[in-house]
Amino acid sequence: MTSRCIIIANGDMNDYHWHKSLLQENDFIICADGGTRHALAMGIIPQVVLGDFDSLSPEAKCALSDTGCHFEEHPEEKDMTDTELALKCCLARNPDEILLLGVLGTRYDHSMANLFLLARIPGHIQAKAVNEQNEIMLLREEVKFSGSPGDLVSLIPLSAEVKGIFTKGLKYMLRNATLDQGSSRGVSNEMVEAEASIRIKDGMALVIRAWDQPRN
């Protein structure tokens, strides 16, 4: 069993120093195809690189050729994105925690599909997608998080309805509330304490913590 898996996809990663600060010595790192460029830019050697390799440069592959990195090539015509393949590989290791990097970018189709992958991760695994200005978690029952007063927190329903919503530590409190899919009511709440939580009785939602300026 692996304690924590890191998936590095081929989306945007602007501040390599900040992203590298998230990594720990014993992380198991899986790069989805072109995400390998981000790992190399951070001076990181992944354990696995997989995908159809349409965005893996020859230079990146050459740089990893003698490092012990395992390459897993898939056909271009397939039923999963490279990032979902990386998640499948990650889940096979039964980790306690999964951190997704480089999953957001200018390709909104890939960005949305990558965020929905959070719903494919079993509830007992802690998982989130992050970049310099966002931290995104899946809410099935309850999520707890730390921060500072004024930090923005949004609740985006994924299911048709999210019922029995209770919040703690947020400016706009919800008590046994219901949010419908497509509702913007849960956008831009604020933390008023150092610790906050959101609990629901039924449904599924994304909890998005956002910062107006990149964290460093």
TrEMBL record:
The keyword Kinase applies. Its EC number is 2.7.6.2. SUPFAM superfamilies: Thiamin pyrophosphokinase, catalytic domain, Thiamin pyrophosphokinase, substrate-binding domain. Gene3D superfamilies: Thiamin pyrophosphokinase, catalytic domain. GO terms for biological process: thiamine diphosphate biosynthetic process; thiamine metabolic process. Residues 147-206 form the Thiamin pyrophosphokinase thiamin-binding domain. Keywords: ATP-binding, Kinase, Nucleotide-binding, Transferase. The keyword Lipid metabolism does not apply. Pfam families: TPK_B1_binding (PF04265), TPK_catalytic (PF04263). GO terms for molecular function: ATP binding; kinase activity; thiamine binding; thiamine diphosphokinase activity. This is Thiamine diphosphokinase. It comes from Formimonas warabiya. The lineage of its organism: Bacteria, Bacillati, Bacillota, Clostridia, Eubacteriales.
